[in-house]
Amino acid sequence: MRLFLAIPVDAACSEQLKTRLAAFQTRPEIAAMKWAPPPNWHLTLSFLGEVSEADYQAIRESMSDWFAEGMSYFEADLLTLSGLPNPKTGPFWAAKLDATLMMQSLVREIDDHLRPLGFAKRKHAFRPHITLGKWKGASDDFPTIDEPLEPIQLRVDRLNLYQSVLTPSSPPEYRLLNSLPLETY
Predict the structure, then answer these.
(1) 17: which residues sit within 8 A by CB, 6+ positions away?
(2) In whole angstroms, what is the distance from residue 174 CA to residue 165 CA?
(3) Which pTM value belongs to this model?
């Protein structure tokens, strides 16, 4: 099964993003964008890839012991709507977030808990973003848009384990397998 750990986009953030995107979705220069449905929006913290049933069970069971010292919820600022390159799958459009110390700490904690389960150390620097759409046109035609966002905040109050089920004709289906709430007060 194909798994990833992510922060879901809360309802308030989703509504603000939908409103902001409405103006862009009608622009002719981005007609080749295939927009991700809002229920699929999330901030991936760790993409695990294809995982065996045994490894899935180990991750799921270990999650209840993560953050024994506590990890409190926080809010992350969405900074810009930007086009991002991806040599493997083609360019995409995303809401980029500030990589705050809290966000970096959360990612480090996740990596530290996954390593004893046999998952390799992260190969690339963490660049937080929420994928909003994938470009289906020619890469050379991808518009270079970088729009600042009015203050939009993502509430980071849980960590979800998802299964990604790929289908040839529709967007991926993300099945929630486990959820770990962060401390709130």
Answers:
(1) 9, 38, 41, 78, 95, 130, 132, 152
(2) 6
(3) 0.91
